[in-house]
Amino acid sequence: MAPSDTHRAIHAIFRLDSARLIAGLTRIVRDVGIAEELAQDALVAALEQWPQSGVPDNPGAWLMACAKNRAINAWRRAKMLERKHGELAREADARADRAAVALEDAIDDDIGDDLLRLVFTACHPVLSTEARVALTLRLVAGLTTEEIARAFLVPEPTIAQRIVRAKRTLAEQKVPFEVPRGEELGQRLESVGSVIYLVFNEGYSATAGDDVMRPALCEDALRLGRILAGLVPREPEVHGLVALMELNASRSAARTTPSGDPVLLPDQNRGLWDWVQIERGLAALARAEALGSAGGPYFLQASIAACHARARAPGDTDWARIASLYGELAALTPSPVVELNRAVAVSMAEGPEAGLALIDGLKEEPLLKSYHLLPSARADLLARLGRMREASAEFERAASLARNVRQRERLLERAAACAEAARASR
Amino acid sequence: MKFLMTYVQSTKAPPTPERLAALGKFSQEMAASGVLLMTGGLQRPTKGTQLKLAGGKFTATDGPFAETKELIDGFALVQTKSREEAIELARRFMTVAGDGEGEILQVYEPGGGLPK
Predict the structure, then answer these.
(1) Do B113 and A16 touch (CB under 8 A)?
(2) What is the C-alpha to C-alpha distance for residues A30 and A127, in angstroms, rounded to an integer?
(3) What is the mean pLDDT of each run of 10 residues along chain A (426 residues)?
């Protein structure tokens, strides 16, 4: 292999083990920043040695042992310095011994708990949402700052600085490296879940022509979600989140035409859906249900996505169930966008009049004033009722609110078609 | 990106209980690390059915060998960030599974997941 190939291979190996490595090291040194530096030192050592010696059978253990040696050496140096000062020598000795023991233990321990502690630390509420996202992708998903920057369309130094500040904040606020207990656990899991879901949606909203790192965020989020589900297997909402992401991601290939135009759900070629991923999503949803899901927001959204996934053809969709799930979701997290979706589902289940009545109730909603999907959904229903002139006007209004050029063109085409139909019927 | 990995062990003997236990543990770890999407065992390819379409004529020929009934080869569908990562996973798997041969094929995904 050429040196650059070897280095790429070593970086790939490191990525597979880095989260566990950093997690194990953080338990010992109690500082994610120092732990990450030690892990990076181990990577540098691997890049120097493995091209000659070959990749060890158990690279994770090799990297851990290497980082451990660096940590012990650092302690020895610190201890010698303290000896020179002639103070606290015995205390330092004891501390170094304890540290050495802890380091030995860390190699043999099951480090699943450490990984969970790392996840909670990276998503700690003392950090801003942006910082949580960057730190989680860096420490848990093993992305480089360059990859994170490209994915979020932000200059690399901005991300680097965000990560440095986040680590400093964690150290200054003395955030303990632990898994929260009791009531706090639920809130903190919510914070972790929202970071993962934010990463997923950032990738999901990527469009054709974007850097490949952007859609890859969906895969990063899925990987994080699956890891989290493995670490806290008894939490139904975590399985709900995984189900939601798997089910949404299963439609990726069908969501756009080869030229990048969006394809709406009813028009998608369901043969392009990833049925392995749908099975995974449905299985995660079933796990959430078996754990007695209390009907959290991810679980409800995943249940809605599952109704679509189970329908082999658009006509098979269980719209009544979708409408009732949107009702539950609206009660849990009231939002006019959820109400709008519920109205559309009701119109599919009970007919356009019922949907129109609900949508008309949303017309004064300030949050939907400039939301093109409100007039476009209304236009759709008016067209289904044969009220073509009104439908045409609503499609035009929707077009004037659409931000995307392609969307605007589509809406104007529909407006013209409705106007034409109105003229023809006169 | 997703990769399909296949593996055929070179030994003629069925795996020992120890090896099967080690393989089970390995699969569990891979699933917990979020990279494994699907895995399964395959009856020996020599027991498979060979398919051919030539000049519009379709033929299906059953594999000729019957004596390797208990032998199981494997496949896995994984999701990784690079081909190198997939290769490393395969290396780790084969270290546990024993001598054999395998292949890694990238799953084509329209509109994303293409290599850099």
Answers:
(1) no
(2) 17
(3) 79 93 92 94 95 90 93 80 62 61 53 87 96 96 93 93 96 93 91 96 80 86 95 95 97 84 87 94 96 90 97 94 96 93 96 95 88 93 95 95 83 95 87
Question: Is A95 within 8 Å of chain B by CB?
Answer: no
CB A394 within 8 A of CB A412: no
Half-sphere exposure in the Cβ direction for A398 (13 Å, CA): 26
CB atoms within 10 A of CB B54: 7
Query: For residue B15, what are its two tokens?
Result: 């795996």
Interface test with A, best of B30, B37, B77, B82 (most A CBs within 10 A): B37
Domain that holds residue B26: 2-47+64-106
A198–chain B nearest CA distance, Å: 18
The label of the residue with tokens 């022509």 reads A209
Q: Which two tokens stand for residue A31?
A: 């500082």
In a domain, B100, yes or no: yes
A64-67's contacts with Cβ under 8 Å and 24+ in sequence apart are A64/A21, A64/A24, A64/A25, A64/A106, A64/A107, A65/A107, A66/A41, A66/A42, A67/A21, A67/A25, A67/A38, A67/A39, A67/A41, A67/A42
Look up the CATH number of the domain holding residue B74.
3.30.70.1060
CB contact, 8 Å: B94 with chain A?
no
Q: How many CB atoms lie within 10 A of CB A183?
A: 8
For A109-144, where are the alpha helices, taking DSSP H only?
Answer: 112-122, 129-139
**Structural domain count of chain B:** 1
Cα-based distances in Å from B116 to A389, B1, B82: 50, 11, 9
Q: Which residues pair with B78 in a beta bridge?
A: B3, B36
Residues of B in contact with A222 (CB under 8 A): 34, 79
**B55 found inside a domain:** no
